[in-house]
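Researcher: Good morning. I'm working through a list of sequences from a screen, and I'd like to move beyond sequence-only analysis. For each chain I'm collecting a predicted structure so we can compare shapes side by side. This is the next one on the list. No need for commentary yet; just the structure.
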Amino acid sequence: MQEFQVNKSKLTQSRLVQLTDNEHESVAEGELLLKVDKFGFSANNITYGAIGEQLGYWQFFPPAGDEQGAWGMLPVWGFADVVASGVEDVKEGERLFGYFPPKPYLRMQNVNVNAHRIIDGASHRASLPPGYNTYRRVNAEPGYDSSMDNLRMLLWPLHITSFCIWDSLQDRDWFGASQILIISASSKTSLGLGYALADDKNAPKTIGLTSGRNKSWVESLGIYEDTCSYDDLSSLDASLPTVIVDMSGNSELLGKLQSHFSDNMKYCIRVGLTHWDEASEDTGVDPNRSEFFFAPGHIQKRLKDWGPVEFEKKSAGFMVQSSLKSANWLKMEFIEGVEGLASIYKQVCEGSIPPEQGLVIQL
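Model: Good morning. Structure tokens for this chain:
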């Protein structure tokens, strides 16, 4: 039994660490032991590592055998089953969806329970965003369909961000822009945002910016109104007020776009780091017209504005539709165990995994 770790200062470097069998010891009162069944893996998980120190992602799942503090575990989204319970009203065999470490077991502590959620109250997670500590009791969901599990774990963590970006843009009246330029347009978060904007009759024109090798594929999806490659920036209409949604984190590219659009760059929303190795603070973009978008913060805002029931209704409706649309092009690639993840991990870091591929790690 092993867990998958990465070097926090050199994300391309990974290792497998052998675990002892004490994961199977009996649980104390208030504890749950979960057996991780499977999880999705994508460039989004690398982003967790790239900003892990700033936003606390390394704190969720402390690694084994790391006396020097050099290694960490990238959080993943997936499904797990309860194999031992010290919590009233939670039985062995119950299935949960949520945030897990890339290893076979997770022990929850100080667990809080309601009809639809289970919250891990471990002390080292107490100060972290509550959405990441909350696990959905999927069998309590009306109409739960296990055949959708793979789509859910691959797309939910990405498309909930897509939904939040769309909601934030329309809430701020698109910053007065007449076009929205989405960088790294082939990423699954970008495509989710593209679906939301395409369905909004009030949204500005959308342009997907992508690599030359992915341009034809992105165009074939018909999501964006226009598609441009990174080596053809001069073709972008600089006379139009523009909002940039940056999923890449490529600082040099942002600087070129700032120069191209000048005062017509109305706002830049920085979201992901698909080009995490090309990121830096020096982008040349006016900091007064730029922000780093943190989806959990927007979710908390809308939970206050709308209430949990309304937020769930609006976001879940979008998630179902965007997942079904993505199912038309998403190709599942099934990987066996954390050993299989270790063998393909560097390809994910390099961005060489085809955009239509979804990695499912089965434990």
